[in-house]
Amino acid sequence: MFTLSRLAWAFLEPANALVLLASAAVVLLLWGRFQAAWRIGAAAALLQILLLNLPLANLVLGVLEHRFPAPALPLEVAGVVVLGGAVDVDLPRDSVRTDAERLVAMAELSRRYPDVPVVFAGGNGRLGDQQSESRVVKPLMAQLGMDPSRVVFETRSRNTLENALFTRQLLKPSKQDRWILVTSALHMARAAGVFRRHGWNVVPYPVGYVTDTTSAPDAPWFTPGATLLWSIAARECVGLVFYRLAGHTAALFPAP
């Protein structure tokens, strides 16, 4: 499933899809198939308008991010699970990504719940790359005021499904235990759905918002970074569909 999802995304990623459509239109023109070339060219033009000239990406991101509101934290929990994705082990000096708020939340929750286990779940989500995020996260824990020995590192998982399965094998939680689940707000619906489906009783704790529901979306003309926003939104939408079809969530768009 991991390999299939990565290969499928290479074709479904919006910018790649735009290039493929435009290339197909050129090939059909050279081949003399003018009607087919016109149709595919029109589809490429429409995709470009959606990607660059309309603020739809912001709207989709807003729906995804605000599916799960920030919770009222319970007095007692069995532990805290923080999903990986906050660091990039392939960049110089093992750079922290914009999702680094997950690590800040881990430090904050570890102080709020000093007597429960804190788990960092994440290996490496790139094909063929064996380096684990834990190698980078461990030294960062001390900088955030945490004792690294307090953190349990799950180092094998490469995607959300494996986060849920491998961490469950490691901790063996009961259905009565409540675990705080920390991941980006954009990813929370899929993560909560997968963890629930595989026997976890989770309290979703979304962090790292990139949208603001109190302000109007960008004006409907070219906006720098629009393609990136579409890529982020489309990736999560494709993930929701893929996980539902595979039976790893109980609903297409899991709800609180």
Describe the structure concisely for a colleague.
By secondary structure, the protein is α/β, with parallel strands linked by helices. The protein is built from nine helices and five strands; from the N terminus they run ααααβαβαβαβαβα.
Q: What does it look like?
A:
The protein is built from 9 helices and 5 strands; from the N terminus they run ααααβαβαβαβαβα. The protein is α/β, with parallel strands linked by helices. Strands 3-2-1-4-5 form a 5-stranded parallel sheet, sandwiched between helices. Helix 4 packs across helix 9 (226-245). The longest helix is centred in the first third of the chain and has 20 residues, at 34-53. The protein starts with a helix and ends in an 11-residue tail after the last helix. The mean pLDDT is 82.
Give the assembly state of these chains. single chain
- Based on secondary structure, the structural category is alpha/beta
Largest beta-sheet details: 5 strands, parallel
Number of helices: 9
- Helical content (DSSP H or I, runs of 4+): 40-55%
Shape: elongated
What is the spatial order of strands in the main beta sheet? 3-2-1-4-5
Overall mean pLDDT stands at 82
Order of helices and strands: HHHHEHEHEHEHEH
